[in-house]
Specification:
With 111 residues, this protein is mainly α. It is built from four helices and no strands.
């Protein structure tokens, strides 16, 4: 088998092998220099989760208003969205309870 045939097979079957591999860090280089950009903080994640739950609750409230007026296309979809918003709210409350318990446990610890 020729070198050209092997190269053609490698590039068609395994495209990731044709890409150059990352080099290991040089000695003395800061470890943080190779890391990806920082991920969102804990408060950002909590805020984003609360906003999502709030959007679901507002959407279900709108659906309930439409149901009360009688302007409903699909009752099944409305009921599914109501259950989803109910479950997401219950999950948020359970996460809040666990975080509060953890905080109280940390505060009870002696240094």
């Amino acid at each position: 088998m020729s070198t050209e045939a092997i190269t053609a097979l490698a590039s068609s079957a395994l495209p990731s092998l044709s890409a150059p591999l990352p080099l290991p860090p040089e000695p003395g280089m800061a470890v943080g220099a190779l890391q990806s950009p920082p991920s969102p903080g804990f408060s950002d994640l909590v805020t984003q989760g609360l906003q999502q739950v709030n959007q679901q609750l507002l959407g279900s409230q709108t659906d309930l208003q439409q149901l009360a007026v009688g302007n409903v296309q699909n009752l099944h979809q409305i009921m599914i969205r109501l259950e989803e918003s109910k479950l997401s709210f219950q999950l948020m409350m359970q996460v809040r309870n666990r975080l509060l318990e953890s905080y109280q446990d940390v505060m009870k610890m002696q240094l």
